[in-house]
Design brief:
alpha+beta, 5 helices
Amino acid sequence: MAPKRARYYTYGDEEHHKEIRKFIEDSGVLLISRDFKKMPLSYAELDKILGHYHLGSFLNKMSKAYHKNGLDEKLPDRTELIEMIAEDNTLLRCPLIMTSRLLTVGGDKKKIAQMLQIGANGMAADEGVPKPIVEQRKGRQNGGGHSGHSGHSGGSGGRRPGRRREDSSSVGR
């Protein structure tokens, strides 16, 4: 099975963000990382990442720009808010962790583990859990057993060409 992959967006080198990144990487998830302090996110990138989500959930209320722009009182329309975030990426909470379908913001390890389907201890979800023993049936030597695929689907589809399907009322006559 191919390893899980995710994008990891952060702002700066905060110790807590390093800890979250290590937590994810230790579980075997391959991360594509980006520090948007060094490489700010553009309007187009933010629009794509934030998609249809409510933007209020992604705002860093501790940012100086949050209060300076009056975002604590009223949020502007979506386009203007994304423009503000593009101008000052400190408005964005981090880390942002994104898979092909899901996105989480912040450092809640339980939520991150749930989204990435890894253990809350940072291990892969199936690590340390014994695999169930699957018993395989073997066909009888006289050919009367079932070895998996019988070649008959039971329905009208899947019949072999040139073969007639017997009506159940004529069986055994």
